[in-house]
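Notes from the pairing session

We agreed to fold both candidates in a single pass and log them together. This is the raw record for the first candidate, unedited. Please don't reformat it; downstream parsing expects exactly this layout.

Candidate A
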Amino acid sequence: MKGSVGDRTFQAVNGLLLALIALVTIFPIYYVVVVSFTAPSEYLRKDLVLFPEQWSLESYRYLLSSAAFPRALGVSAFLAVVGTACSLVITSSLAYALSRKRMEGRRFILLMILFTILFSPGIIPNYILIRELHLLNSLWAVILVSLTTGWFVILMKGFFDSIPESLDEAAAIDGCNDISTFFRIVLPLSMPAIAAFGLFFAVSYWNQYFNAMLYLNAPDKWPIQVLLQNMLVDASGSALASETMRQPPPSETLKMAAVVIAIVPIMLVYPFLQKHFAKGAMVGSVKG
């Protein structure tokens, strides 16, 4: 059926606006990637590079030849892998326990978790806690303060509520205790939730900046985001020390290359979790 003139006009204007919004959104990413692959001589010669005449990997070679940048990537990878694993274990186990009505003190613990959502202790109490635990300048301090949130626990509890407790009873008849039931029965049925929350935690740990700045003083323990911030502040690019190249590329191409390297790992992880992510993103939001 053909629409009226007004409908066709609306569709055309709507499509044009969406195309403009998409262009405005995509262009900064395109510009970052293009500048990172632009030859230093061409970048210094031109005021604006939209499509380089000469492609170059010099900025990437300089970054990866330095000692600081690969080390920062390793720190971020450690936080993302180990932190995500710890957060998933803590969040899922607590949410599973709270989803079972037979747990004593369940209502009180839920109220305490809701209280943490409404009221945050703030930066100073957290810093004092980390200091008293002698975890300052330790990567475990960043992981500890980011283990979980009350909101994530409540959401995952909603998912576990949909798993009938009769499965627990059947597992108990077969000789499983609560821990065995959780790891052998419940978790395999919870892959959509695990994938969704795993992606949330991984992105959060990979992008750790403020907590790392607060608790990590040694430059050799800085994650990639802290190193990027220092590169952006340091216009000369001397935040990196490279022994293999005497003359560094322009600082702008270095910054763009560093941004590209920092975002690629998360972009590569998402396709592997996409199968579960769509379902897991709605976890706990609808309860039948």
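Candidate B (folded immediately after A)
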Amino acid sequence: MKKIKWVWIAILFVTTANAQFIKEKSVNALIGYGLSYPNNSLGDVYNDGLYLQGELVLKAASWVSFRPYAGFIFTGNQGKDFNGDPTDESASSKALLLGGKARLRGPIPYVAPYLELGVGTSIGSFRTMTYFDDFDKTGVIYHMPFSFGLELGKNHNVDLGFTYYFQPNVEQMVGAFAVGLNIPLRS
């Protein structure tokens, strides 16, 4: 519970701070193809579904921004292998994702690569069933987000990327291939 308390303190600090080092503010809305994978399985197993997320973008420089986020991941219950055939193993998540990330971006015009790291919490239900693990948990767990992708366009308003949330408490990882639109906020 201590970790969750510190995540909430960090989110409140970042969202309420009106620091002078923040140059621009915007909102990034993402939608994507969600996936969940067990950490330990005999084969390549996944569950698929929907991913939605909204981020408050606090741009400190052309190459760094801070991003408190709220999102949702919903993946089905029946595990599949990469041929699309059903398996006995599965990893499913139906959760609200809350946390904060920092994005490092190459200050390149029109096509800028980025990398994100952060910490957050997942609130919902999680099921991981493999030959090695059997978790059926409902509640609050922590996660560690990791993302990479490209910001596209003259003002880098289109976000195209892969995002992952490592959830060690339930031995699974959720993620998505997502497309986002960045909407500037006027002060």
